[in-house]
Fold this protein.
Amino acid sequence: MAKHEPDLSLLFHALADPTRRSILTRLARGPAPVTELANPTGLRLPTVMRHLSVLEAAGLIATSKDGRVRSCAIVPEALAPVRTWLDEQREIWEGRLDRMDEYVMKLMEERAK
Amino acid sequence: MAKHEPDLSLLFHALADPTRRSILTRLARGPAPVTELANPTGLRLPTVMRHLSVLEAAGLIATSKDGRVRSCAIVPEALAPVRTWLDEQREIWEGRLDRMDEYVMKLMEERAK
DNA sequence: ATGTTAGTTAGCCGCATGGCTAAACATGAA
DNA sequence: TTCATGTTTAGCCATGCGGCTAACTAACAT
């Protein structure tokens, strides 16, 4: 399925990992350098680096280097497409419920005749 | 990172694939048998089956067999944890903004002395 | 009973992912 | 300059993923 929203796939994939989610949650409280992010994970730095680049590729975080320390910060708008997708999904589903209501109504009218 | 929410990982991972998302969108309009779901994807049945089991494992769809045809239906509540996580995330972020406001206020008070 | 249709299972293939170590940079401190 | 610190790069390994074919089962239709 060649799809038009690679963003969504990147986003969902980035969010699918507990380590990455915990990094995000940590970052939601404020920017932090790489090593500080690595500490609570118990993982080695290169591993954490890769998680960070996945997050950055998905647009969920932004990083900048000051001296020799790289600071990471969350990009809160990045979650918008996810939210939008969820809303669309719910809308379609509710549309379906509405149509089901109509259908039931029609049935009841039929029966009332 | 041993995490306490395997659901979230399963959910996000299930949603990370365009084929699976399109199947979900299709199902949001009403239940459908496997072959009907497979048709628009251009993929072989076993492949689609695997996608379906990923979706089912994540609790996003439910299936039932009637005769020799298996009908798949969406489970709309399944997206709730995702929505909840997004909301929590946003809350933390906004909390951070609030604290930043406080901080700025404090700074201004200091300066006013 | 025989064929057709709808799923299912088994197993192969290539690539991506998530972990690691070891070695290389780059910068700030002594 | 030399050393310590904070990444960064390269490369290895096992596992998992997404695609396939081929072969098997389970209903329904003739």
